[in-house]
């Protein structure tokens, strides 16, 4: 059976840290679906269409990677796309506390949906979407942190 992982996130923006999780995830899974969550309570900084287009461009050469956006429960969407696993990255213990709870809730929502965590590469651990947004807001160059170019 094809092993499919759903990699959910806000990706506001998608960073080199996220890209690294996807690339390393490909040694474990046959297909990875990157799901951009459109959380209606959270106002985005980067437009979803722009991020979706740029992620598609960054992975255009790899048919094992698909990109979708969604506004629903992550567990339901993962099942809808036939994923048996959710893929997430862990940078530190703060991520762990949060991710641990979320993964347990997802397990309750969908019994056969496991979460696989990959520990961040040390050189990418300081990168967060929050910091990249902040740098962009004040005019700093964000190209070292993202795997594509953005206006
Ligand atoms: P969310 O809003 O759902 O937390 P994010 O877009 O911030 O989504 O992150 C999505 C996933 O990527 C999370 O599992 C997060 O821990 C992970 N992640 C974020 N930054 C990095 C990084 N620099 N290296 C590895 N994983 C990361």
TrEMBL record:
<dbReference type="GO" id="GO:0005524">
    <property type="term" value="F:ATP binding"/>
</dbReference>
<feature type="binding site">
    <location>
        <begin position="10"/>
        <end position="11"/>
    </location>
    <ligand>
        <name>ATP</name>
    </ligand>
</feature>
<dbReference type="GO" id="GO:0004595">
    <property type="term" value="F:pantetheine-phosphate adenylyltransferase activity"/>
</dbReference>
<feature type="binding site">
    <location>
        <position position="42"/>
    </location>
    <ligand>
        <name>substrate</name>
    </ligand>
</feature>
<keyword id="KW-0460">Magnesium</keyword>
<feature type="binding site">
    <location>
        <position position="99"/>
    </location>
    <ligand>
        <name>ATP</name>
    </ligand>
</feature>
<keyword id="KW-0548">Nucleotidyltransferase</keyword>
<dbReference type="InterPro" id="IPR014729">
    <property type="entry name" value="Rossmann-like_a/b/a_fold"/>
</dbReference>
<keyword id="KW-0173">Coenzyme A biosynthesis</keyword>
<feature type="site" description="Transition state stabilizer">
    <location>
        <position position="18"/>
    </location>
</feature>
<feature type="binding site">
    <location>
        <position position="74"/>
    </location>
    <ligand>
        <name>substrate</name>
    </ligand>
</feature>
<dbReference type="InterPro" id="IPR004821">
    <property type="entry name" value="Cyt_trans-like"/>
</dbReference>
<feature type="binding site">
    <location>
        <position position="10"/>
    </location>
    <ligand>
        <name>substrate</name>
    </ligand>
</feature>
<keyword id="KW-0067">ATP-binding</keyword>
<feature type="binding site">
    <location>
        <position position="88"/>
    </location>
    <ligand>
        <name>substrate</name>
    </ligand>
</feature>
<comment type="function">
    <text>Reversibly transfers an adenylyl group from ATP to 4'-phosphopantetheine, yielding dephospho-CoA (dPCoA) and pyrophosphate.</text>
</comment>
<dbReference type="InterPro" id="IPR001980">
    <property type="entry name" value="PPAT"/>
</dbReference>
<keyword id="KW-0547">Nucleotide-binding</keyword>
<keyword id="KW-0963">Cytoplasm</keyword>
<feature type="binding site">
    <location>
        <position position="18"/>
    </location>
    <ligand>
        <name>ATP</name>
    </ligand>
</feature>
<protein>
    <recommendedName>
        <fullName>Phosphopantetheine adenylyltransferase</fullName>
        <ecNumber>2.7.7.3</ecNumber>
    </recommendedName>
</protein>
<feature type="binding site">
    <location>
        <begin position="89"/>
        <end position="91"/>
    </location>
    <ligand>
        <name>ATP</name>
    </ligand>
</feature>
<feature type="binding site">
    <location>
        <begin position="124"/>
        <end position="130"/>
    </location>
    <ligand>
        <name>ATP</name>
    </ligand>
</feature>
<comment type="pathway">
    <text>Cofactor biosynthesis; coenzyme A biosynthesis; CoA from (R)-pantothenate: step 4/5.</text>
</comment>
<dbReference type="GO" id="GO:0005737">
    <property type="term" value="C:cytoplasm"/>
</dbReference>
<comment type="similarity">
    <text>Belongs to the bacterial CoaD family.</text>
</comment>
<dbReference type="Pfam" id="PF01467">
    <property type="entry name" value="CTP_transf_like"/>
</dbReference>
<feature type="domain" description="Cytidyltransferase-like">
    <location>
        <begin position="6"/>
        <end position="134"/>
    </location>
</feature>
<comment type="subunit">
    <text>Homohexamer.</text>
</comment>
<keyword id="KW-0808">Transferase</keyword>
<dbReference type="GO" id="GO:0015937">
    <property type="term" value="P:coenzyme A biosynthetic process"/>
</dbReference>
């Amino acid at each position: 059976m094809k092993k499919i992982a759903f990699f959910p996130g806000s990706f506001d923006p998608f960073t080199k840290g996220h890209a690294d999780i996807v690339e390393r995830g490909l040694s474990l899974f046959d297909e990875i679906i990157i799901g951009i969550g459109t959380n209606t309570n959270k106002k985005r900084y980067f437009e979803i269409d722009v991020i979706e287009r740029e992620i598609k461009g960054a992975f255009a050469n790899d048919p094992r990677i698909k990109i979708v956006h969604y506004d629903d429960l992550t567990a339901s969407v993962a099942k809808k796309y036939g994923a048996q696993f959710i893929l997430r990255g862990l940078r530190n213990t703060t991520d762990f506390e949060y991710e641990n709870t979320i993964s347990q809730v997802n397990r309750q929502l969908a019994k056969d949906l496991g979460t696989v965590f990959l520990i961040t590469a040390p050189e990418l651990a300081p990168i967060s979407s929050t910091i990249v947004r902040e740098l962009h807001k004040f005019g700093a160059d964000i190209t070292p942190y993202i795997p594509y170019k953005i206006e």
